[in-house]
Amino acid sequence: LKDDVISFSFKAKSFLWQQVRRMVSLILMVGKEILSLEEVSEILDGKLRKNIAPAPAHGLILFDVSYPVRFKKDEKAAAKGIKVVEELLRKASVSRFVFKSILEKVLNSL
Asked: What are phi and psi of 29, to 5 degrees?
């Protein structure tokens, strides 16, 4: 808690719809002594069923999302993509040389 701001950080491979808002709500309920840690443990274990309303959206900020992406070289797809992009760039009057040098740097970094 700093300057009346509570900051939470969650990191996962994926989240369910409203999962983070419900986790925030659950944490706040414990902080306000509406729920005990034992009850939270039972909820998470499926032993206690409670409808946990999601925290209100106002004030919640999604700050960052990252996607670890690994590309696999596909020469055929790359050649097709190059043709499509070359045509678009030709229409936009971008030099083929400039495009090719940029593309080569991208492909070499894979």
From this structure: -65, -35
